[in-house]
Design goal:
Chain B: One of its GO terms (molecular function) is oxidoreductase activity, acting on the CH-CH group of donors. The complex is a heterodimer of chains A (about 375) and B (about 400). Helices cover about 50% and strands about 15% of the residues of chain A. Chain A is of the alpha+beta class and about 375 residues long. In chain A, strands 1-4-5-8 form a four-stranded mixed beta sheet, with helices on one face. In chain A, strand 2 and strand 3 form a beta hairpin. In chain A, helix 7 runs antiparallel to helix 10 and helix 8 packs antiparallel against helix 9. Chain B is α+β, with helices and mostly antiparallel strands and about 400 residues long. Chain B folds into three domains: about 100 residues, Butyryl-Coa Dehydrogenase, subunit A, domain 1 (Orthogonal Bundle); about 110 residues, Butyryl-CoA Dehydrogenase, subunit A, domain 2, CATH 2.40.110; about 130 residues, Butyryl-CoA Dehydrogenase, subunit A, domain 3 (Up-down Bundle), CATH 1.20.140. In chain B, about 40% of the residues lie in helices and about 15% in strands. In chain B, helix 9 runs antiparallel to helix 11. Classes of the chains: A alpha+beta (about 375), B alpha+beta (about 400). At the A-B interface, helix 7, strand 10, helix 8, helix 9 and helix 11 of A face helix 7, helix 8, helix 9 and helix 11 of B.
């Protein structure tokens, strides 16, 4: 894969990033989709959710080894493919489409961005190859512009003590990236999952396919990655890029919810007709298709600005999280409703999508939070506190 | 289709710029009369470069027009005021190009493009709106002519128009889609009567057109007798794909007006309105990016069905934002500048008062295909959902309940 954002289109006269998919991205999508079709069909996903191994680590290693999905945006010198976050976003769409239970967001996005920022090449290389995975130890709901977390403190001897709740992708992780407060202020540490003083407690999570865990650290030994502004920027950058990529995952969820529902309404008969011929249902699906068309443009713009280092990325990501979060929730809610009774059962995959979409809408800042951030970025201030 | 063969390799952007410079050298915009300049531009193939050579174009991809437009704008050249002749440019021209004879193309396209001849569209009727194929205006053959009688409605620019594109029923004995023929009608011919149709804005942007024994030469037929429905599809398709060549800046539409009012009037702000404004701003930005996506697709030669989504989203957004504007303005929104009936010569969605914008936007989800019909089209043609059971498809038009 080439280093430059690959595209066949002439966009000399285009303001801003290319929103379309390149041929390389189409091929990448086909590879990921084929592998997921073989190893991650929804009955397999559903069968796993109530076991002791909610994450499919084998699938993740295979995706990393056979398609290289874990290191797409990592430079070749550091063991990656030297592509960009654009290509990663295509993977995010496909993993969302399959509600794949793999530590993509935590390891290949959040941790990878943070480690690239602090320059830890060795660990980045391991993550890129899929041989190890990492998790960023913050609550999944943390927004990019949140205050630096204060739940973990650095104690004398470079050991960490504290607790972090609702961490995503940490159950299968080998390494935890832990934001902590030391005497000198914010710091970012790498902590081995197997180290003394590290306890993970699995949480019964709303999203069955991205299981959370609470992390407790009691004088756990940590390796300092960055401190001060560097630590703060690494964390913020990880959450910001994560929020952009999450929009692509949400797009994949929404597209699959619509496709599944359309297929069902074409074949399901009531009153002697396919129920998809009733205008009341058709119009709802048409509305959804329009929304998805818009969500695609919005998500591509967000990841394009992030990939290009475009100064508009702040607005673009806030718009994406505000728009696509609600659209994906709507799409999966419509999926449940329009399937009727069967959509309300455990044995149908609709609930896996609904739960992922609702959790994603809260993850990395709610739509409401992102709209509030947007207000400052686009000069649409709210009401003064005292009127 | 009759297009001149185009053997030479297409010119590069530099060659295209040179062509523009040659035009400007021989026709200085500062000293050339507007119409003369536009005619020369047409004859140089720089009017619409995607049209064939000899018909105002160079047989180039549509995207190359950007190069020409940018050069001409930089030189201060006059344009053809596209908002005044939108129906000619967007609907009549592509249809004439696709179905017209070479004589018809040579006669109509040049004055259409320069704006010397304004066009209007005689499609909708009081009894045939969403169900356009049910139309009842009759065209009866008489020698070399057709004699047209009926009533058309929602005709913008009819009072300014020289020509109309017309669909009329030539065979009432076959099912409705099969008995329609497409014509070009002379709006100055005897028997054409135009009456303003006043809308809820107070203006009469549209007209009713009464046709009483109007003679149309058979040489002004577009396409075969009975093929009018198919020809009309070209017209209607183009109506919904009129996406511009340039990227649209942020806050370009009505959202920009609402945002400006918000910024300039802190005393009007409330928490509820703030929440609504931010949502509308995000929706407007999503619509803008979707148009940009579509524009990039067209430029890459991959037109998609997203055009109907863009039209549909635009209508909803305009209505919501213009409604928001009135809520924000409060007392000022209780006043409406003027209900006097006027006949505007061009459509301006952003002009006028907030009250006018609010009322005018109500038409956005009706004109050019109601949002309900657009939803049907998306559901059936894009998503592949089954059609509603149809009771009128195989019944001769004359036997349908009216």
């Amino acid at each position: 894969m080439s280093t430059a954002p690959s595209t066949a289109h002439d966009h000399t006269h285009t303001a801003g990033p290319d929103l379309l998919y390149s041929e390389v991205e189409d091929e990448l999508r086909a590879s990921v989709r084929a592998l997921l079709a073989d190893h991650c069909a929804w009955p397999t996903v559903l069968a796993r959710v109530e076991t002791d191994e909610p994450y499919d680590v084998g699938l993740w290693r295979r995706l990393a080894a056979e398609v290289g999905v874990a290191g797409l945006a990592v430079p070749e010198a550091e063991g990656g493919a030297g592509a960009s976050w654009r290509e990663v976003a295509v993977v995010a769409e496909e993993l969302g489409r399959a509600v794949a239970p793999v530590p993509f967001l935590g390891s290949a996005v959040l941790s990878t961005v943070a480690l690239l920022a602090v320059g830890d090449s060795a660990l980045v290389g391991d993550l890129a190859s899929g041989t190890r995975t990492a998790a960023l130890a913050v609550p999944l709901s943390t927004a990019p512009d949140a205050a630096f977390p204060g739940g973990v403190r650095v104690e004398p001897g470079e050991v960490l003590t504290g607790a972090v709740t609702s961490v995503a992708d940490v159950l299968p992780a080998d390494v935890l990236l832990v934001p902590a407060l030391g005497e000198a202020g914010p710091a970012l540490y790498a902590v081995d999952r197997a180290a003394e003083g590290v306890t993970l407690t699995g949480v019964s999570s709303l999203d069955l396919t991205r299981r959370l865990a609470d992390v407790t650290l009691r004088a756990a030994p940590g390796r300092l990655l960055a401190s001060g502004t560097a630590a703060r920027d690494a964390l913020r950058g990880a959450l910001h890029t994560g929020a952009a990529l999450l929009a692509s995952e949400q797009l994949g969820l929404a597209e699959q919810a619509l496709a599944t529902t359309v297929d069902y309404l074409r074949t399901r008969h009531q009153f002697g007709r396919p129920v998809g011929s009733f205008q009341a249902l058709k119009h709802r699906l048409a509305d959804l298709w329009v929304g998805i068309t818009q969500a695609r443009a919005v998500a591509r713009y967000a990841v394009g600005t992030v990939a290009d280092g475009d100064p508009d990325a702040g607005v673009a990501v806030a718009v994406a999280q505000s728009f696509v979060s609600e659209l994906a929730v709507l799409a999966t809610e419509e999926m449940v409703q329009l399937h009727g009774g069967v959509g309300f059962t455990w044995e149908h995959p609709a609930h896996l999508y609904l739960k992922r979409a609702k959790a994603d809408a809260i993850a990395l800042g709610s739509a409401d939070h992102h709209r509030a951030s947007l207000a400052g970025l686009i000069d649409l201030p709210g009401v003064p506190a005292v009127r | 289709m009759s297009t001149e063969a185009h053997q030479a390799p297409p010119p590069s952007a530099d060659e295209l710029r040179q062509r523009v410079r040659d035009l400007l050298a021989t026709h200085d915009p500062a000293t050339t009369e507007r119409v003369e300049f536009l005619r020369a531009r047409f004859d140089a193939g720089l009017a619409w470069v995607h049209f064939p050579v000899g018909l105002g174009g160079l047989g180039l991809p549509r995207v190359s027009q950007e190069v020409v437009d940018a050069e001409l704008a930089a030189a201060g050249a006059p344009d053809n005021n596209p908002r005044r002749i939108g129906i000619g440019l967007g609907m009549a021209a592509p249809t004439i190009l696709r179905y017209g004879t070479s004589e018809q193309q040579a006669r109509f396209l040049r004055p259409l493009w320069t704006g010397e001849e304004v066009w209007c569209q005689l499609f909708s009727e009081p009894g045939a709106g969403s169900d356009l194929a049910a139309l009842g205006t009759r065209a009866v053959r008489d020698g070399d002519d057709w004699v047209v009688t009926g009533q058309k409605v929602w005709t913008s620019m009819a009072h300014e128009a020289r020509w109309a594109i017309l669909v009329a029923r030539t065979d009432p004995d076959v099912p409705k889609h099969q008995g329609i023929t497409y014509f070009v009608l002379d709006m100055t011919a005897p028997g054409v009567q135009v009456r303003p149709l006043r809308q809820l804005t107070g203006e009469a942007e549209f007209n009713e057109v009464f046709l009483d024994g109007v003679r149309v030469p058979d040489s002004q037929r577009l396409g075969a007798v009975g093929e009018g429905w198919r020809v009309a599809q070209t017209t209607l398709m183009n109506e919904r794909v009129s996406i511009g060549g340039m990227a649209e800046p942020r806050e370009a539409g009505i959202i920009g007006l609402a945002a400006r009012t918000w910024r300039e009037h802190p005393e009007l702000r409330t928490p509820g309105l703030h929440e609504r404004l931010l949502r509308l701003w995000v929706d407007a930005e999503a619509a803008r990016l979707t148009k940009e996506w579509l524009r990039q697709r067209l430029a890459a030669g991959q037109p998609g069905p997203e055009g109907s989504a863009a039209k549909f989203a635009f209508a909803r957004l305009n209505q919501q934002i213009s409604g928001f504007e009135l809520d924000l303005l409060g007392e000022q929104a209780l006043r409406y500048p003027d209900w006097t009936m006027r006949r505007p010569t061009q459509v301006d969605m952003l002009g006028g008062s907030p009250g006018f914008r609010y009322l005018r936007a109500k038409g956005n989800s009706i004109e050019g295909g109601t949002s309900e019909i657009l939803r049907n089209i998306i559901a059936e043609r894009v998503l592949g959902l089954p059609t509603e059971p149809r009771i009128d498809k195989d019944v001769p038009w004359k036997d349908l309940p009216k």
